[in-house]
């Protein structure tokens, strides 16, 4: 399919990319394979600047019915990235963000968690508690029924205000 000219061009491109990668990660015979792999992965990660991380932090919110464990794992990773960028987020602020990130359908749970959370509770324990309660709530009120119930509650609220 390729003519000889295309093949030569692809060989040059591969050689250039390979040399760029290995020059960038500075591979020696003393490096462990895991370190080399980690350095390679860092080369291909999208660069995230502070405003982008800050925006992700402010806009992070768990969608009702989605996997809470994955969401809170990503939120914890976001905290780590912000710390690497020089932004320090206190433990209480991390806990508050974890609670605020719950879906709007769970206002009562947000309130209860904010009342129950003390300074002694670790972020890890709080995440475990949130995930367990969230899973139980979603099991009782699956996403489709919760949104229709929420809409009915809003509709009833509008009717009482109008009367």
Describe the structure.
The chain is mainly alpha-helical. The chain has 2 domains: 4-44, no CATH class; 50-141. The chain is 73% helix and 0% strand. The N and C termini lie far apart (75 Å). The model is unreliable at 151-163 (pLDDT under 50).
Short account of what is shown:
It holds the Pfam family Retrotran_gag_2. The chain is mainly α and 163 residues long.
Oligomer: single chain
Q: What amount of the residues lies in strands? A: under 5%
- Structural class comes to mainly alpha
Largest sheet geometry: none
| SS field, number of helical segments | 8
Radius of gyration: 24 Å
| Number of DSSP-assigned strands | 0
Distance between the termini: 75 Å
Integer tally of domains: 2
Low-confidence stretches: 151-163
Basic shape? elongated
Mean pLDDT: 75
List the helices and strands and how they pair.
Elements lengths: L3 H22 L7 H12 L5 H10 L8 H17 L6 H10 L6 H10 L6 H18 L2 H20 L1
Pfam family, one: Retrotran_gag_2
Defining traits:
about 160 residues; mainly alpha; 2 domains
């Amino acid at each position: 399919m390729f003519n000889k000219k295309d093949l030569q061009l692809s060989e040059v491109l591969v050689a250039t990319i390979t040399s760029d990668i290995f020059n960038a990660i500075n591979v020696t015979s003393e490096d462990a394979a895991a370190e080399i792999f980690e350095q390679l992965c860092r080369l291909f990660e999208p660069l995230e600047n502070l405003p982008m991380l800050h925006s992700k932090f402010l806009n992070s919110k768990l969608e009702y019915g989605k996997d809470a464990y994955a969401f809170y794992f990503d939120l914890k990773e976001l905290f780590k990235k912000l710390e690497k960028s020089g932004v320090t987020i206190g433990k209480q602020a991390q806990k508050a963000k974890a609670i605020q990130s719950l879906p709007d359908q769970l206002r009562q749970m947000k309130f209860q968690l904010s009342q129950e959370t003390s300074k002694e509770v670790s972020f890890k324990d709080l995440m475990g508690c949130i995930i367990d309660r969230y899973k139980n709530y979603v099991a009782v009120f699956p996403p489709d029924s919760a949104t229709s119930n929420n809409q009915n509650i809003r509709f009833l609220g509008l009717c009482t205000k109008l009367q």
